[in-house]
Amino acid sequence: MTTTTASARPGERTVGKSSPGAARGPRRRTGRIRRIGLPYLLLLPALVLELLVHLVPMVIGIAMSFKELTQFYIRDWSLAPWTGVDNYRLSVDFDAPVGRALLDSFLVTCGFTVLSVGLCWFIGTAAAICMQDAFRGRGLLRALFLVPYALPVYAAVITWAFMFQHDNGLVNHVLHDQLGLTDQPSFWLIGDNSFIALLVVSVWKGWPFAFLIVMAGLQNIPKDLYEAAALDGAGVWQQIRRITLPSLRPVNQVLVLVLFLWTFNDFNTPYVLFGKAAPAAADLISIHIYQSSFVTWNFGTGSAMSVLLLLFLLVVTGVYLLLTSRGRRSPHA
């Protein structure tokens, strides 16, 4: 197919051929745009749900923290008086009753989180290492170890609440009646022992997750390393110290962060175990904020406490990720 242009000189013909690539060019660009936009299109429902479920309530909660929102303004919280940062001042005033109670709850939560995360990691790692080598019945034991993680949280905690009963609980029956380890039946759901009860329940339902993650990480360690170490005379503890734990460092970094966030924000366990009013020894900050908001009906102060908790977790998470990323960075980076 030939075409003659009007601007050609007399006696000359300009011959042009329609190239197939010229027609395919727009099609290729359209296909490229579709391929690039497809992932965003698939992510759009999740982004919309994230916006509705998390971001919008978060913005509303931040706005509520600057208002004197009490039970008198529940019907229309937008009419509540604007107080500025007074709720934040009240929350961090540790000489006042509200701030002192929040500080005590924060310290209890920190101690509880450190013990729970440490015990969950230790028990889960030890169980995963013991289950590393094949033996008869290993599959059954693995399944049994995952039962606490598979059970619904409410069903598991309610069962523990019955076991911790003073008069007819299984714990007192074993410790006092059967073994004689205590002089009299103990109160586990009130007083100082409530911290131990909360810690036991948290570790019981949390260590199978650590076991599952560490067990998956152990599958990536070559068996040749253990065989070479055994030929060099390394014992079991030396192999764990020199091979297993260093190889599990990336897995443990993520595992510890997830356990920390889950444990520090845990609300279901103390709420189901103790109810709306947790004992002072087990007053986690999550249940404390709930009491400040929905028991005393001071939503402004409770929202300010929630924002402070969010900022604390963001700072701790950022510092932790910064330190761990520096540890993973190569010397030549």
UniProtKB/TrEMBL annotation:
Gene3D superfamilies: MetI-like (1.10.3720.10). Residues 1-28 are annotated as: Disordered. It comes from the Bacteria. The keyword Ribonucleoprotein does not apply. The chain crosses the membrane at residues 37-66, 106-131, 143-163, 195-218, 247-264, 303-323. It is found in: Cell membrane. Residues 106-320 form the ABC transmembrane type-1 domain. Its main location: membrane. Keywords: Cell membrane, Membrane, Transmembrane, Transmembrane helix, Transport. It is a multi-pass membrane protein. PANTHER family: ABC TRANSPORTER PERMEASE PROTEIN, INNER MEMBRANE ABC TRANSPORTER PERMEASE PROTEIN YCJO. Belongs to the binding-protein-dependent transport system permease family. This is Carbohydrate ABC transporter permease. The lineage of its organism: Bacteria, Bacillati, Actinomycetota, Actinomycetes, Kitasatosporales.
